Amino acid sequence: MLRLDGKVALITGLGQTTDEGWGIGAAIAMKLSQQGAIIFGGNRSLSSAERTKARIEKKGGKCEVQETNVTDSTSVKALVDSCMQRHGRIDILINNVGKSEPGGPAEMSEETWDQQVDLNLKSVYLTSHYVLPIMEKQETGGTVINVSSIAGLRYIGKPQVAYSATKAAIMQFTKATAVIYAGKGVRLNTVVPGLIYTPYTRELAKRYAPGGDEAAYMKTRDEQVPMGRMGDAWDVANATVFLASDEARYITGQELVVDGGITSSTGRV
Ligand SMILES: NC(=O)c1ccc[n+]([C@@H]2O[C@H](COP(=O)([O-])OP(=O)(O)OC[C@H]3O[C@@H](n4cnc5c(N)ncnc54)[C@H](OP(=O)(O)O)[C@@H]3O)[C@@H](O)[C@H]2O)c1
Predict the structure, then answer these.
(1) Half-sphere exposure of 173 (CA within 13 A, CB side)
(2) What Pfam family is a match for this entry (predicted)?
(3) Which ranges of the chain have pLDDT less than 50?
């Protein structure tokens, strides 16, 4: 079940700045690798991508990484070209890069708005632009999984309007493109994480915890979830592996929400 032996997976944002814990991109790369996929990763900083590569190789997996800026067309094309030169195919594309900036439309600068749209949304267009024509030509097609957020479905307690808008747009980009490619052997789906405990969440706690009380910040996040706890990167990675696998061969244009029940609830804040 869920084997991905020999499949080539291109993934963005697989880097991690610490060996403590797992970011979502790094966990997805590790899980895909453990299922037999060969990983080719693009990340802003090479050093954090190399940390993930080392962790994957330590477990016997295959991973190569390249410095990439997902908002830059030339850089994304170079990543795709390198993967093709190395492996001659791309079976799985994971668009994981994304970040939230705080603010509603009145407070947010135009510059921040544009950066959010570029990082969270244009990045998904750019990789798709270069990879979909490759997948379409392959006899076995391909599959794309885009990483959104429940902030694209609901207001989740803090103003982050550009993040919410771009994460919602990813879902519709995926649906529309899935229909266009449904007859061409390429499936596209979105994985939609809720509140996830990652190294980045710990950074947020350091920055935003009222009175510097990081434990209380984490407790509040846990209590917002009907299951009583945040998810972790493996919860998102497991859902992603399923969508990437042949077991999901009849699923396209869908969102798989991984949120411990938040979006099914009327709220627990
Ligand atoms: N964490 C959560 O609670 C949560 C919840 C819902 C959805 N998500 C979504 O899940 C995804 C991953 O989140 P995460 O918390 O695991 O993030 P993360 O740990 O911050 O990882 C993001 C990765 O993207 C890389 N990156 C940033 N800008 C880039 C660029 N322009 N080009 C290439 N790479 C770039 C970073 O590189 P560096 O190493 O250089 O920093 C980092 O390795 C995001 O799309 C996020 O919106 C997260």
Answers:
(1) 24
(2) adh_short_C2
(3) none
